[in-house]
Amino acid sequence: MNSEQLKSLQINPEFRKRPQRSLWMIFIVVVTLTGVTVYFAWPRSEDSRRVVDTTKNKEANAALSAVEKQQVTPKKPAGDGADTALLTVSGYIVNRERIELSPRFLGVVKWIGVKKGDAVTNGQVVVLLDDAEYKARLLESQGRLANTKAAVEKAALTYGRVAKLATDKVESKQIEDEARLNLEAARATQKEVEGQVELIKTYVDWTVIRSPINGVVLEKLVDPNELVVPQSFGGTRGPSTALIALADPKDLQVETDLNESDLAKVFLNQKCRVSPEAYPDKVYDGYVAEMAPEANRQKGTLQIKVQIQNPDRYLTPELSARVDFLGR
Fold first, then answer.
1. The whole model's pTM is what?
2. Which of 1-15, 68-82, 165-179, 246-260 has the lowest mean pLDDT?
3. What's the confidence (pLDDT) of residue 14?
């Protein structure tokens, strides 16, 4: 093969060079596409919140706002947030003490100055019984007391004279002793009548019925001119044996019946959370104040009383409430 043929077979150097401009265009396109993909794939805070067109669906927008509000401001129970409920039961709100005022003797109601729902203070007069009979007895006893005082004075004068005569040997020792004993008997009679006067004064004082606590009248059980009798020992309250019923509205408990299978989770002074069923958003601190000494065999339960701390007007006796027994 001659040199001309070999030269014709050689490749032109210009054709062996790749087009650099095309490579740069491809590289720029790849980089641009990668940047756009990363931009739209990167997570944002607003992506977690769905945007709703309020002009098209107002109800959906309101529901979404309510859900977001609950997420932002969750309800926190009272007390330590770290406390966990070991057990939740239902019970009834009760007054820790219900006081029924009963007369001390048979009598007639003369005046009653309160009605159901009235607030009363310690020592306030709430009922007056008819005291005419006892005031008459008091006058009679005071008259007898005046007579005994006169008798004592007379006996004292007699004894003084006899004692002087006995000293002068005019009267005998026996007469002196009799005068002295008469004086002592008169003084004893005076003390007896004085005791009767004090007893009648006590009866007169018992006709004035006063409130023993600061509280609220739960019930008015009698009316004026009604006959009342003392409450019998160990018996149940019958008609006209009690005048009014009182309780302290700031001293409330929740009374529950706990299944025996749950007793291991409850102990005295255990912290609790109380929420009335009528106001589920209200939460109060409490503690186990009382555990019954014996269980109810028929029900298989034990009565537990939880003392409510700092109760307010939202807690009404005899309404139901939920109690959470906390772990610590």
1. 0.63
2. 68-82
3. 53
| Residue 12 confidence class, pLDDT cut points 50, 70, 90 | low
* Higher-confidence position of 238 and 228: 228
pLDDT exceeds 60 at position 244: yes
SS (H, E, C) the chain: CCHHHHHHHCCCHHHHCCCHHHHHHHHHHHHHHHHHHHHHHCCCHHHHCCCCCCCCCHHHHHHHHHHHHHHHCCCCCCCCCCCCEEEEEEEEEEECCEEEECCCCCEEEEEECCCCCCEECCCCEEEEECCHHHHHHHHHHHHHHHHHHHHHHHHHHHHHHHHHHHHCCCCCHHHHHHHHHHHHHHHHHHHHHHHHHHHHHHHHHHCEEECCCCEEEEEECCCCCCEECCCCCCCCCCCCCCCEEEECCCCEEEEEEEEHHHHHHCCCCCEEEEEECCCCCCCEEEEEEEECCCCECCCCEEEEEEEECCCCCCCCCCCEEEEEEECC
Q: How buried is 155 (Cβ within 10 angstroms: 0-12 exposed, 13-18 middle, 19+ buried)?
A: buried
Options 2.40.30.170, 3.40.50.300, 3.20.20.70, 2.40.50.140; CATH of 85-96+251-326: 2.40.30.170
Residue ranges covered by each domain of the chain: 16-74, 85-96+251-326, 98-129+207-247, 131-204
